[in-house]
Specification:
By secondary structure, the chain is an all-alpha fold. Helices cover 71% and strands 0% of the residues. The radius of gyration is 25 Å and the shape is globular.
């Protein structure tokens, strides 16, 4: 009995020490809410649709991209203020958050996104964007790219370099929030970089005008990232769980059917 109690105490101490170490991502429960994913896809699709036929990205890219940025920022601001991005806490674990903390979260998201857009603007110029002209077009493109690829990581990951390194760069096993951040980040920027290939071609198409290709690539990449996260983090785990449960029920059924025959042989 003494050894058992000693073992239990040791296990309790180990569990308490392990639980005291917080993960690198924010403490979202793993109970996923697919509504946020659908809202993300709807917001991205809405951002691609012009509210008026007279307004299009070819004639007035700055005004058009300002509308898309407003739609995306409003989507993220609502979810950040409500505290449901991107996983919804169960009722038993939900704690009321003061309004001041929610407003602070929205302000932090806005400032961090603006800083990311400035960094992306510099990167676009270094990679060949117009340096002496079209500054507004470059900044609005960078702002949309930041909202699509960086803002999900800002809302999901903790504000420290180690959390971002683990989620975006390292090959270590990742949690669901880290997969969410990495999927949207890399899909957005890789697709935007690939779409820039069409700009210097001599096709003379209106959609080759700066910065339409990289913005279109960012939106398409973001939609692809949403599908990846949906498949990788939600559909496949559910399918595996259903498969395991099905196999378990089959084994139980075979065992129940074999038990009467075994008892008859014994009789």
């Amino acid at each position: 009995m003494k050894s058992t109690s000693h073992t239990d105490a040791a296990s309790e101490g180990g569990s308490s020490s392990s639980s005291s170490r917080l993960p690198d991502h924010k403490l979202y429960p793993i109970d996923a809410n697919g509504i946020e994913l659908m809202l993300g896809g709807m917001a991205s699709a809405m951002a691609l649709v012009s509210p008026r036929k007279s307004l299009n990205i070819y004639d007035n890219p700055v005004k058009y991209l300002s509308i898309t940025a407003t739609v995306l920022f409003g989507y993220y601001a609502i979810l950040a203020f409500a505290g449901i991005y991107c996983f919804k806490a169960p009722t038993s674990r939900r704690r009321p958050t003061p309004a001041g903390a929610r407003i602070t979260a929205v302000i932090y998201m806005g400032v961090a996104t603006l800083a990311a857009s400035l960094v992306i603007s510099l990167g676009l110029v270094l990679f060949g964007a117009p340096f002496a002209s079209q500054h507004a077009e470059t900044f609005m493109a960078a702002l949309n790219m930041a909202l699509l690829g960086v803002t999900p990581a800002i809302l999901t990951l903790k504000p420290n370099p180690e959390a971002w390194r683990k989620a975006l760069i390292s090959g270590e096993p990742k949690s669901v929030p880290e997969l969410w951040a990495a999927g949207l980040f890399w899909s957005t920027f890789v697709a935007s970089w690939a779409a820039a290939y069409f700009i210097p071609l001599d096709w003379d198409r209106p959609w080759q005008k700066w910065p339409i290709p990289i913005v279109g690539g960012a939106f398409l990449g973001n939609l692809a990232g949403l599908l990846y996260v949906l498949l990788r983090c939600f559909i496949l785990p559910l399918a595996r769980a259903d498969y395991a449960e099905t196999e378990r029920s089959k084994r139980d059924m075979v065992r129940e059917l074999s038990e009467p025959s075994a008892t008859k042989k014994e009789l």
